């Protein structure tokens, strides 16, 4: 991979196959992967082995910049996953010829190969430029979001176009200072939930789709168990006070250049 930040969030093919199969058996229905995670074949195997019907699963993946000008990128992605369609197809980064990548998404959407399309990491100038060029408005944007960084500015544009936010680093990438904020402990006591569950519930009440990462089975189970309580408006307002407008991950232009120059070593089988 071109950079450290990706390494720690990727699951190896064997881990991905197991996690996908077990998560689906446990009741999860959203699976989010990417060309760049180099585990799409394994994700496909996990889906098939889970016994859960394809149409019950919401499968999202992302084209990597090396694929933006490859006319077969979408078909090759579907082939690796072993599916006829995905539910959501993103372009992963505003790097390289990303407009060519976006045109591929629009075509995939029209051809029924993707049920919806999205942009990942396209905040600021990038979504502004895309707005002048899109033919089809994306339904999703995947960006960093958590109670310390709620994407206030970006959400004005999203609200205008009805674009759904999917939060990455929803738990602040596991940062203890976020998870241990007293407000989450207090609300956890009230609702008999863990602080992480309160944070994930906050995301859903903000209208965000959420993709927490975990290698711990108890956490994976907990992270699904957030649908049986509702934070009050006053509690949402208390959490809103934590917003510092500060992200954990800062991408540089040099990284975008690196992204454009790197091609994932896709699994052979
Ligand atoms: N589109 C992009 O460019 C992009 C960039 C970054 C990330 N992402 C996506 O975002 C997802 C989440 O990112 P992430 O995993 O780095 O950050 P995260 O979900 O914010 O945090 C994960 C951390 O939280 C801990 N955790 C998870 N559930 C917990 C619980 N119930 N209680 C206590 N701790 C808990 C995990 O530890 P344990 O393993 O011990 O549970 C891990 O240390 C990734 O799967 C990735 O697909 C996308």
Question: Would you mind describing this structure in some detail?
Answer:
The chain is of the alpha/beta class and 269 residues long. The chain has two domains: 132 residues, NADP-dependent oxidoreductase domain (TIM Barrel); 71 residues, no CATH class. The protein is 44% helix and 11% strand. The protein has 13 helices and seven strands. NADP nicotinamide-adenine-dinucleotide phosphate binds next to helix 11.
Provide a quick synopsis of the model.
The protein is α/β, with parallel strands linked by helices.
The domain count comes to: 2
- Classified in CATH, the superfamily of the largest domain is NADP-dependent oxidoreductase domain
Reported by name, the CATH topology of the largest domain is TIM Barrel
Rounded Rg? 18 Å
Shape: globular
**Assembly form of the protein:** single chain
CATH class of the largest domain equals Alpha Beta
CATH architecture of the largest domain: Alpha-Beta Barrel
Report the major sheet: 7 strands, parallel
Number of helices: 13
The percent range for helix content is: 40-55%
Tell me the β content.
5-15%
List of distinct ligands in this structure: NADP nicotinamide-adenine-dinucleotide phosphate
Measured distance between first and last alpha carbons: 20 Å
- Average of pLDDT: 95
How many E-type strands? 7
Lateral strand order in the biggest sheet: 1-2-3-4-5-6-7
């Amino acid at each position: 991979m071109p950079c450290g930040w990706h390494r720690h969030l990727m699951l190896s093919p064997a881990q991905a196959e197991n996690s996908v199969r077990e998560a689906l058996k446990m009741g999860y229905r959203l699976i989010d992967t990417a060309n760049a995670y180099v585990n799409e074949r394994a994700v496909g195997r996990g889906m098939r082995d889970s016994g859960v019907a394809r149409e019950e699963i919401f499968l999202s993946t992302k084209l990597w910049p090396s694929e933006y000008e490859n006319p077969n990128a979408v078909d090759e992605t579907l082939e690796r996953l072993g599916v006829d369609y995905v539910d959501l197809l993103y372009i992963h980064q505003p790097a390289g010829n990303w407009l060519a990548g976006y045109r591929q998404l629009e075509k995939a959407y029209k051809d029924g190969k993707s049920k919806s399309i999205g942009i990942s990491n396209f905040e600021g100038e990038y979504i502004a430029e895309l707005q002048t060029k899109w033919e089809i408005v994306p339904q999703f944007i995947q960006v960093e979001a958590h109670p310390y960084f709620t994407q206030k500015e970006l959400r004005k544009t999203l609200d205008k176009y009805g674009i759904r936010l999917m939060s990455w680093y929803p738990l602040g990438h596991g940062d203890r200072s976020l998870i241990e904020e007293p407000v989450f402990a207090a609300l956890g006591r009230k609702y008999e939930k863990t602080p992480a569950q309160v944070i994930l519930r906050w995301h859903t009440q903000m209208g965000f789709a959420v993709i927490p990462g975990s290698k711990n089975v108890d956490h994976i189970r907990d992270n699904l168990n957030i649908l049986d309580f509702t934070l009050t408006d006053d509690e949402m307002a208390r959490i809103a006070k934590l917003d510092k407008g500060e992200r954990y991950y800062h991408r540089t232009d040099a990284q975008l250049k690196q992204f454009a120059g790197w091609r994932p070593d896709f699994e052979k089988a």
